[in-house]
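Hi there, hope your week has been kind to you so far. It would help a lot if you went through both lines with me. No rush at all, and the record is pasted right below:

***
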Amino acid sequence: MSTTTITQPARHTIVAEDTIPPAENSPVFQALARGDQHGKLKLRGIPSFDDPYAKRQWVREHMAGAFRFFGKQGYGEGVSGHISVRDPVLPGHFWMNPFAKHFSLIKASDLVLVDANGYVVEGGNQAIINEAGFMIHSEVHRARPEVMAVAHTHGVYGKTWSAFGKPIEMITQDACNFYGKLSVYEEHGGIALAQDEGKAIANALGKDNIACILQNHGLITVGSTVDEAAFLFYSLDKACHSQLMAEGAAANGVPKKIIQDDVAQFTANSVQDPHNFYLEFQPEFELVVEESGGRLLQ
């Protein structure tokens, strides 16, 4: 099996939430916005929790928000697509969506808690999960212990671009979200009903990347929060959409202009921060909470 990786290293890497410096102490994150002259107004990033059970509830609420957002984007297709998040209370356990429930209907109480072997346990919704989803997500969580959340669906733009088995190009500023942190899985072993395919995907993702294009399959993203993984998935799917349109224009004689490596690196260094990618998702989270009348939090 072979993989393709954009090899230029970015300065910032995703790490587990508990080891991320507080948002107010992150000069990269704070440089993205301007407050008052005295420095009292600062960006708010990933919250911290002393109570793991309070954090668990927060994780479930934001996970439900991510699914509602994915539903709005049309990422659902039958029973395909899943998000997983490590449980803050029980080591080795993580949360997943129930099998065959529309993303747009998911509430926090619908989420299912599974153990390291993929079996449903007490503490969450007593519902079955997607077998292929477990095979993929469990292997990524096993290979990347610092990753808190994993997102994978079959969005139309991502899966269409995946047919080329190529990474996206740095043709827009937003594409630079992934500069130096995107790989390509150049094999497709069919639906992931065995551990080998999950292991191959985890291996293709690599040790430091935040996303992977799965050839003939779709996209997968990871994050230190579910918010981050969800935003990165949306951003990569949009980048694939842009790439497809740009390829169409280029095929008709319009030359593409690629962002220079030093400029792409500068942009990546400015945005590839867990607090930033978390914050990028908050407008969408607030909107889906408002649109659901708060029901997704239940």
